[in-house]
Amino acid sequence: MNNETLFLLFILLSMIRLVYQLTEEEFLTYNFYTCWERPERKNLRLRFYIIGVVAVIALVSIVFFNDLSRDGITLYPASLMVIGIAFMMLMIRFRMKSGFDKRARKMLSDSNPNSVLRETEWTFSETGVTGKTAVSEVKFSWDAFQKKAIANRSFYLYTNAQQAMVIPFRVFSSTGEKEEFEKILKQHLPLSADLPVATAK
After folding, report:
1. Mind giving me the DSSP string for the chain?
2. What structural domains does the chain harbor?
């Protein structure tokens, strides 16, 4: 074999091809992670939770003002505060999830049929990433990806703050293929591009 043939063989061996179509639930989960759960959104989440905690404490203090001023903090109002704070935390997350899901579904319905959830063939190689659908083709160099994250049993490869390529774990034919994909990511995307790994749900 000459050098050119060996090089082409190396490219083929280090190439991964994935063909899949995102489900609506996978897209909604990715959208919620990007808009709310990402580490960069920590300060936003803290603001909402602090406002919620303050609101619960203020409400309990007003309702039990006489008791608190006479007896101080007793078990009953303290228990109500704890329960109220826990309920408020859950409500904030539920309301945020519901709101982001509603906007994402509207975006999907306003788009051309299957424009977002269309089946795509992705090829990952030494030279970059290529995506093909029935009507279009896109190409990315590895430099185009700014961040990568592992969350919700998926890889998220971000090209900007809001948009990412979503690769669910389910699309890999074997554990070995998934491990080869991870090697490609480690080779081409620097550690500085890593977001903390989120707990799989």
Report:
1. --HHHHHHHHHHHT-EEEEE---HHHHHHHHHIIIIISGGGHHHHHHHHHHHHHHHHHHHHHHTHHHHHHH-S-HHHHHHHHHHHHHHHHHHHHHHHHHHHHHHHHHHHHSPTTTTT--EEEEEETTEEEEE-SS-EEEE-GGG--EEEEETTEEEEESSSS-EEEEEGGG-SSHHHHHHHHHHHHHHS-GGGBPPPPPP-
2. 3-21+118-193 (2.30.29.30), 34-110 (no CATH)
Over 80: is that where the pLDDT of 64 sits? Answer: no
pLDDT at 185 over 60: yes
Instruction: Give the chain's mean pLDDT.
Output: 84
pTM above 0.90, yes or no: no
The 10s digit of each residue's pLDDT in 94-150 is 999 999 999 999 988 888 756 778 999 999 998 899 999 988 899 999 999 999 999
Is residue 181 within 8 A of residue 190, CB to CB? The reply is: no
